[in-house]
Write a structure and sequence with these properties.
The chain is α+β, with helices and mostly antiparallel strands. The protein has one domain: Alpha-D-Glucose-1,6-Bisphosphate, Chain A, domain 4, CATH 3.30.530.20. It is built from four helices and nine strands. A seven-stranded antiparallel β-sheet has the order 1-9-8-5-4-3-2. A hairpin with a 2-residue loop joins strand 6 and strand 7. It comes from Methylophaga nitratireducenticrescens. This is Polyketide cyclase / dehydrase and lipid transport. InterPro entries: Polyketide_cyclase/dehydratase, START-like_dom_sf. It holds the Pfam family Polyketide_cyc2.
Length: about 190
């Protein structure tokens, strides 16, 4: 009995250290929009991996290679001249969906974490993967944009505001919301 009690007490002391050692948790954002247009029209607006600048207000240009084949890449240039490089991982014409990931981003600054300088990426996230799906919903079209990612700083030190969970989540929500709202406006013209 004494041995069991010792194990439990030791476990209770180690639990905070284990939780702290785990690092950042995976985050998720999902945004949707209902559009008063048929699904085929909306899909044709978003399906080309090199067309994001045509319907997202934060993107001034898209340079892509590989079409809509898995492995295709694109470099997005944002209004602040920062860039994001992405790879198309899955593309399904029949189900009107695709999945992509961010491979690299330019830095928009630096932040000091425990005496060491860290880059602040154009979007304050890491290990980002996203899915865009278009589906008919009655006489409307539902577009869903889902992302799974980690905050910009995944170390075990206290993360700075510029790279924390809240900043990462709010950035993705803002990107998705502005893109989906602009897409709705363009599709309903």
């Amino acid at each position: 009995m004494k041995a069991v009690l010792n194990v439990l007490v030791t476990g209770l002391f180690l639990l905070p250290a284990l939780v702290f050692a785990h690092g950042a948790s995976r985050l998720q954002v999902e945004e949707t929009v209902l559009i008063n247009a048929d699904a085929e029209t909306v899909w044709n607006m978003v399906k080309d991996f090199d067309s994001l600048h045509k319907w997202h207000p934060a993107i001034i240009s898209t340079k892509a290679e590989g079409g809509n084949e898995p492995g295709a890449t694109r470099v997005l240039t944002l209004k602040n001249d920062s860039t994001i490089t992405e790879t198309l991982k899955k593309f399904d014409e029949e189900s009107m969906s695709f999945m992509y990931q961010i491979d690299e981003m330019s830095s928009v600054g630096q932040v000091d974490i425990e005496g060491e300088m860290h880059d602040i990426p154009a979007v304050p996230v890491s290990k980002y993967k996203a899915w865009l799906t278009v589906e008919a919903e009655g006489d409307q079209t539902k577009v869903t944009w889902l992302a799974k990612f980690f905050r910009g700083y995944t170390g075990n030190h206290h993360e700075p505001k510029e790279l924390n969970d809240e900043t990462a989540t709010n950035a993705i929500k803002g990107i998705f919301r502005s893109g989906l709202d602009t897409l709705k406006g363009k599709a309903e013209k």
